[in-house]
């Protein structure tokens, strides 16, 4: 139904891709969802059987249904699941004419605990069909709050990213998890720093006489290489790829994909697993890459058979034979490639990975490819046998167990296409294999593999590559940062406001220059800025926050119990402790990583670390409070069980009024005991917890009981320190719990005087800007 009227929604209505609708523009032309080169390529590669071809193409042309995942760390996880199971599943069914699909929405069978959902409505249908409005509003709000993540069903995974904006997105997503155990970095994955300590180094903990071993190398238990790819598995949500697609896109990325995968394996612990994944269907970006890394790391790495895992996820085995398309012709073997094309078509693209006759040449080609020392190949004899060029086009078949890879195509479960291989490191790599490729050496993907005729148009749409160089991306950071210097909570740019340039008064940006400076002064400011930024352009270095006076004032003010490890776990971006605006809490393992990073000269470009826990109260009135740091909304869930002062329980009616009106005079609270306790709090930040059925001690709060908000205690009133949207969400959840009778105490505490107090409260002046979390603090 794409059109906007009320009516039942049939997925087959929207047979043009997502984004493929008119939206009132008379000049608009639908995207073509055809590309003869695409058809020819994939028919020949036989990624689906000939009988399946029509279904495959039919699904590729349909818009992608919306899928989303419930954030298991959300305090409302169970409420949301129950709303989906008991409310939306039924109400949406009456709006749905399903074609092949029986259900309007359903939990993904392969994902645990009904936490991931598939809807049979495309994003366009959700936007346009009024009957779906309630569900659409629900998805939008819960996504914004962070209770759900709208995501393609096949991509529920995390990684480092070269693109700063993608890093921002990662930070936004991970922030919702409220964990102190996350670091986001911004590196070319193929050059990701190893952070290896000199063998003779004596760890800090040993110097301190502690027995704990410090890590002396950055190695991971699990690595995910979700690599840049041609992205033709996302055709359903990005139909413009139909027009841009050509076989050179995959060929051009093959070399970089190998480099990234090899680097990932170097950073993996022995026994650890690495997932190599793409959202492309192309064997050159998939099986050919996996085959090459197995050849290069033979004896050190194995391909894991995961065919028994997630049995409800419909998938098909990886291919063992495929062909290479170059300049409009099929090449079945490297030796058949035209001589002039041997820079663009390389041996690793073919199933057997064989080069020409001379093993020395072969090895030098491979060295170039990944810039790493290679294991000597043991196929000399075979290579010599292959010396004579063949005239007939013999098919190459890989002898590697590539059927252990998994390929998902769109009609498997009405989703996108994806490729996954799981690799296990079985032995440590010799020293030569550990090094990342030298940055000075021209990457092989530029030097060797990128076919010259790959049109600009093609590289534009390479998933995650585009035409952005690292420097170009880095240049954008300060610009984005300046958008969010006001402390607002616009989440997507969190990285920019909080992690870049914690340089106190902002003058380093040249924004606060006054007096006799003019242009020269600004230039000088600019210079100073570069010096202050440390080695990574646009990102201030992370430093441990060790100011004992400040830490003690925080501990004392909030009565934080000693068992909560603040000491040594706090970091900032500003060495000048007087101007620190935000203090982040880091977990033990992140702390170890950071210590290692310092030991090895800070090679990591860290764009986000840990959990924002404290923020300097910036308003003038705020500085008169005994503690100049408030607890951030993100940090509150973690800290809550450890706070013993400045914390009060409010009845439902008072809690609701706070959410509703944002600022309440003490005299207007319904509960007289709460009124007295609130006015007795010290001025400054405080925490208000909703009273629950069982009056547990605050230190015993569990996740389900953590309905708490940060507030500001002023002279005569309490004001919330929560965004308007979070207030709205909390209100709605509380109302829903009351309606379903899930929490009986909520109904009991509701008083008959509610209407009366509402009238009273309406007289209270409401804060002007409900969007900001800076409170309307009175003096
Ligand atoms: C398929 S996407 C990964 C998406 C990721 N799993 C997520 O959920 O955000 C590939 C990503 O690789 C990034 N990229 C491109 N070239 C890179 C490189 N050389 N090193 C690291 N990341 C790179 C792109 O910016 C893009 O976000």
Automatic annotation (TrEMBL):
It holds the Pfam family Methyltr_RsmB-F. Keywords: Methyltransferase, Nucleus, RNA-binding, S-adenosyl-L-methionine, Transferase, tRNA processing, tRNA-binding. Residues 507-518 have a biased composition (Gly residues). GO terms for cellular component: nucleus. Its main location: nucleus. GO terms for biological process: tRNA methylation. This is SAM-dependent MTase RsmB/NOP-type domain-containing protein. It comes from Punica granatum.
